[in-house]
Amino acid sequence: MGFWPRSLLARDYEVPKRPIFHLEGWDVVQGTDAATYVSGVVPDGVMYGTNGCLGVRHHCESETVGYRTSLYMNGVYHSAPLNAYVDSEALPEEIQVGATVCEVTLDCFIDGESGTLGEAPSQRLNLRDATYSSTSVDVVSGDGGLTFDSTYRQVVSLNELDLWCAETVCTNFSIDALSSGTDFASQNNSESSAKHIEEDMYSTESSTYSVVFIVSVTVSLDDWYLVGGDSTEKLLIESTTSGILVGTETEASCTVECGDRTYKIVPEQQVRNAPEDFYTPHRDCGFSHAAYVSESESEHPHSSRAAWRGTSGSRGRVCFQKQFPYTITPDNVPQKVTLSFHARHHNGGLPLSRPFPSFADVVAEQRLVLDNFWSTFWIDIQRQDELPPNRMKLGLIFNSFRLFCVSRNLQNGLPQAGCSTTKSNLLYDLQQYVYHGIYYILTSPSSALALLRSLYCMLSQARMNALRLSLEHGAVYPRRTITGTECWHCSTLNNARFHVNAEVGYIINMYFSAVESIDTNDRLWLLELMLETARVWSQVGEWVENEGVFRLDNIAGPDEYNGNAAGNFYVHLSAKLHLRNAYNLYEEQQKIVGDEAIFCLLQGINMDISELENFRTISNEIVVRRDNHLDVFLVHDHFDTLKEWKGERPKHPLSMNYHPLAIYRHKVVNIPEVLLGMLLYPAEFERKDLLQNLSYYAPLCTHDSAESLAIVACVEFRANGRFTHGMPLLCSLASLDLDNIIYAADEGLDFGAMSATWIAVVMGIGGVKITSRSLHLDPSFPAGLSVLSFTLHWRGATLRTRVEKDCITYDLMAGDSIRFIHANRHRIHLHSGCRQSVARKQVAIPQPMSSMHGEFAGAIFLCETLFDSVMEMNFIAWGKTLESLYENYRALHLRHIPPLTAEEFVDKVIYQAEHREIAFSGIHNVLLDRGIDLPLGSPDDAEIVETRYGLANAKVAELEEMWSREAPCVNPAMRALLRDLEDNGIPLALVSYSRTLKTLMQYHPEEALRFLTAIDGDEAHERHIKSRPHLDIFVRAAEKIHVEPSRCLIFSSHIDSNFKVSELSYFRMVFDVEDPFAARVRGSKTCEYPSMLRPAAADGDVRPLVINLKRDKFPTTVDGLESILCGPVASGSDLAAAGDAPPSDPCS
Description:
By secondary structure, this protein is α+β, with helices and mostly antiparallel strands. Among the domains are: 51-356, Glycoside hydrolase, family 65, N-terminal domain (Beta-galactosidase, Chain A, domain 5, Distorted Sandwich); 858-866 and 968-1135, HAD superfamily/HAD-like (Rossmann fold, 3-Layer(aba) Sandwich); 870-965. It is built from 31 helices and 41 strands. Strand 27 (769-771) and strand 28 form a beta hairpin. The model is unreliable at 178-205, 286-312, 1096-1100 and 1130-1148 (pLDDT under 50).
């Protein structure tokens, strides 16, 4: 657990305590408890199949045994009218909208009815072969007489990009003879028996079941013309709006294993739900047309949008079916029935006919491909407070798995949701390509080149975009598109946006830095792409004569909340570096490929040397301005003059809840462009710039875009190292899709967030950066981590980095040689051996975790020691909670039950002794004294449940209600001490046995941020941490801040009873901080400290283990603490720290 300030503006990304999915080996498994409260849309998206070309989304079954799947294709779209406010030839007439090609259903009907599920199916996705499976146990017929198990499996081929397969395997068939009144033993081989079975086939009293296995392929005629095809085997459809042709070829079969026989059922073909004119009249395809069949009421409902042209009104749908009938009797019960389906889909026409591989063969090929991937790629974070285990690991490897699958077709672009859903989420969000580019360059350079090639394929349309904007030459890339035209509504409403051009240039420059061997042809088209995107800057900016600088005004960056002002920081920075890198790349490639090739390239794009020289001139004169008063870089020239957002917490996202002008007038950011610029161009900034700008912009982030979490977390890791608070943001980002954190499952998976998560880990915690074509690594080890491990590719080699508490280990996993710089000063060369050099494939660098020269290296505080009134408020809350219970008992048992007294609360509750983990022994003893014995219960007990946990939950609610009216103040001396400890670089941890810790610290965000980690009652319960008088919670906190307990100071209270000397001696010193409430109640009554003196040192000095600290004589500085630690102090004495007078205002 850690604290991150959720500002007034920030969107809530709270990670739920119970995850929806778990990692079992290499399987992503939906939790059994999650299936009862999580919408089926969530597992549908998480467990869909894709290869970057096809998206196959299974729709979770909840009641019947039918398996329905939607098919999407990368680059297949419908056209929709552009809702422009101005009728202008300069704007495109239409935009692209992702299409659902068809739906495929594998059904099982028993006597005309769907089989009913006995329980929620078990769903899992295997990350080693990319197969999805859903297992339903005890599928039941309508009369309950027939039961069987059904397993649905689905796989999208990673080798043949147009292929996917599915199969339903039914096993464990059982007929309940008790449900039948027929004596089959006496009627064997009898004609009357056969006649009786035939007559009663659909009777609920019969033990003969007519089972029909059905494969259906359904096409919406509102979106598609059916050009040809009269069965499921071959279909050709054409979009009613875009004219795109999609050809489909399928194969379906049903195999029965019964006794010693294995045979296939002969299918029956049908066409259902088809209007009479469902074929397009204007295209002759050579297919036979299917006959019209009346609509069946048993079909699943299907919704479709109305096309804006080509058809008028709803035309319905056409459903092609293959039916496989089979009769099950007590004498003919199969061991297994397998319904198989294979399909190929091709954009542009029918796929080339070729035999379909078996399901098993496809899975075997998948495993080979993925084994090769996992052998050279890895990323893992192990957190100390992670429950259940591997939760962060699951998010990281799931994201990596998904990014690998879509990489098989990157040459055709990467849809925003990776083909996991349709409509606008099938578009390419080119603003996210900068994250994808970084990810693929450092993990799979060939995939990065394919991604860049997809951009190059759009170059002709990008040039047309530039012409539409009255630019003489160059190319302008849109933010969202499929064909290259802009499909983002904001681009038609506010200022021009060219930042995607700069990000394309950034990816190209990074690719040349990270890849050693590049083909000459690739060098040329990459250079062409770089130059064409860079040359727009000179045309959209202007020289300011009196200042001699080049300005790019009225051009917006990626943050849509700041798109209407001049002097955008990100635009100026990225344009400056884009132009510089373009010129440098030109000079570099001229030396490599030769003057002739470069001359032909420049001639082809109508560029001369003077224009290239102008790149360098403009780059040198673009000024990135810093605000000298605030010492930060402003988003734009007037950002600091905007109003602060005050009042109620805003609704998210802001863009969908507030007018753009209302947003523009406020000091808010969605994507923190300043921090993004610092992350992408680290050589341009110093560490102090990161710290200053992070503290300024982090509270202003709305985080409406998930990538902003990665940006802030990454800069936080880089700026603060092991003292970072970025881990909560990273946890939210890694779990974004798996836990449906912002309830956006309908919109598919967020692939931009996936790439950004990897960047936050590797470039943030791992400290990876690229400057001057050199690789730098400077890993940190934030509090709460136990292990960090990741791989990256650099110039033909694969480097694995493992960060642990004691050391950082670098391993050369593949390749002959790799050179990099560690911690900005140590140059390291790992190699497999060459000439006379002995191979050096690994180097381990010790971790300088903390200074061993000071008196202590860490401090851990019990939460209650920070406040003067928390224990008194706990007494009031417990009193009210118990009084509600007592009233019921008084009424039921007609006897007097005394209320809780302050003396009783102090002696029995505050000083309660727990033998193991938290059990509320003190409250239990209070109740036993009144003849009430309540069981412990569980943390999930409701407030009205009469258990100790139920009472505790009611007390928590009462306490939080009290705090909402008047929150307790942090003791001023304690506040001063915390500030000084943080300023001196001492890692701090906060612990509490209460589950109210997080709520309480929300009222004190400034103090909360001083603590690197925290442990509350929930974590203590889940980790089985022993309660007082044990000190296990402090030992655990020391581990989380990576400081040895013997170097830690402990600030606790009520140490004067039951604590063991052996446990107290673990720590450098334990301070027993006075509790004003207990001191007032008990008066002079105190428990004596046991004899707790350390053995005498060589100089004869004897040091106590515990020192009592009075509130009015509390040290407020590190110097004051060290004076106590070093001075001659008697055990258990009251201390006054010289020169440390506390502030006077108790709530200042």
